[in-house]
Specification:
4 strands; Glutaredoxin; 4-stranded mixed sheet; 45% helix; 2 domains; binds FE2/S2 (inorganic) cluster; alpha+beta
């Protein structure tokens, strides 16, 4: 764990209270970036909550990440408007540009993590991706390379 002191502060903030696990894990994830096995074991040891229960919660909720994420998060919209505007080709091109296979979502250099999401709320711009907080719309596969270069 990189941020043991911050994790200890978070645990101490929640310990002894009811219903602490989800907010505690959210805080811990915000600090470390993801929930590693070491982190979950440490939370278990410090709180007395069984590791199997922590792991069960961490894997049940999609907001929790069990693997480190890239510096830039790319959200490829697969909502209806984007889907009918060929979001699949956009996703294929993003993966191709970043040299990712279907099983991988994070580049080897740790710069990018790609995820598909439901509607990003700007359907009139379909197909849409977000890189971090920036929205890029009315995309074609040819436009992807230029966009990603900005974040290299
Ligand atoms: S469906 Fe893609 S932004 Fe709404």
């Amino acid at each position: 764990m990189k941020f043991k002191t911050e994790i200890d502060i978070t645990i101490n903030k929640f310990i002894g209270k009811k219903g602490i696990l989800i907010p505690l894990l959210q805080n811990a994830q915000d600090i470390e970036g993801y929930l590693s096995k070491d982190l979950m074991s440490y939370v278990s040891e410090k709180t007395g909550i069984k590791l199997a229960h922590i792991y069960g919660v961490a894997t049940f909720y999609t907001m929790f990440r069990l693997k480190p994420q890239g510096k830039h998060i790319i959200r490829v919209c697969k909502g209806t408007a984007c889907h009918v505007s060929d979001a699949n080709s956009i996703m294929k091109e993003v993966n191709k540009q970043l040299d990712l296979t279907n099983e991988e979502d994070t580049t080897k250099d740790g710069k990018f993590t790609v995820m598909s999401v439901a509607c990003l709320g700007c359907c009139s711009l379909a197909p849409v991706i977000m890189v971090g907080d920036n929205t890029h719309g009315r995309l074609t596969p040819d436009s992807i390379g230029k966009i990603l270069k900005k974040y290299e």
